[in-house]
Write a structure and sequence with these properties.
single chain; 227 residues; alpha/beta; Rossmann fold; 7-stranded mixed beta sheet; 7 helices; 7 strands
Length: 227
């Protein structure tokens, strides 16, 4: 018997770009691969393709730009209000180009998941695919990868890992061909991980995320508010 609408996990997606990973989530939910539904899409960029994809799919969305003079903490408080109003079971960062503060993460502890186009401990931050390709041209690597992880704190592309996938870099690759292969791998891995999270949560991984969050929260309180 299929899952009822009431039992499906409510997924809120934060995306700054074209929304191809969002589309993979939408399609997988529609096909029943993920026992969930995208409840809301938020973008910090008014012209983001993710907002257009949400509109096409009939999904509620919000453009939440940063106000002049607004601090990160103030922005994240507004963002958290939007996500909380959507009653999110999971918050998925699918190409979200802002580092979230503990003020946001504290309201959704153990529920924030990030997708990054590199393997754990490799190439944190922006332009990870381009940097991997540049390294391959210099003979420094012949593969890269993709990971999905929980986000317990303000660390960049770091946290308890939920899944990884390797992506080979071929000698004749261009940046475009490598990017296409990485993005295709992202879609598959993200759907697989969300399918697991929306069915049975891994107690060990969840405990690790909660422990990481508790430590991060303690450190954040010692440092004081984020500017």
């Amino acid at each position: 018997m299929g899952a009822t609408a009431a039992s499906k996990r409510r997924i809120v997606v934060l995306a700054s770009g074209s929304g191809s990973n969002l589309q993979a989530i939408i399609d997988a939910c529609a096909a029943g691969q993920i026992n969930g539904a995208v409840a809301h899409v938020v973008s910090d960029r008014r012209d983001a393709g993710a907002l257009r994809r949400a509109a096409t799919a009939g999904i509620a969305s919000t453009h939440l730009g940063r106000r002049e003079g607004e601090t990160r903490a103030e922005y994240d408080a507004r963002l958290a209000d939007v996500v909380e109003a959507a009653d999110a079971d999971l918050v998925v960062l699918a190409g979200w180009m802002r580092i979230l503060t503990m003020g946001f993460l504290g309201r959704f502890a153990g529920r924030v998941v990030n997708l990054h186009p590199a393997l754990p401990g490799e190439l944190p931050g922006t332009d990870a695919i381009a940097r991997a390709w540049d390294q391959s041209r210099r003979g420094e690597r012949d593969s890269t990868g993709v990971m999905v992880h929980f986000v317990p704190d303000e660390g960049v592309d770091d946290g308890p890992v939920l899944g990884t996938a390797d992506v080979p870099i071929h000698p004749d690759d261009t940046l475009d061909t490598l990017s296409e292969r990485v993005h295709a791998t992202e879609h598959l891995l993200l759907v697989d991980v969300l399918a697991d999270l929306c069915s049975t949560r891994s107690a060990a991984i969840q405990a690790a995320c909660n422990d990481s969050f508790a430590g991060a929260q303690s450190l954040a309180s010692e440092r004081g508010p984020t500017p």
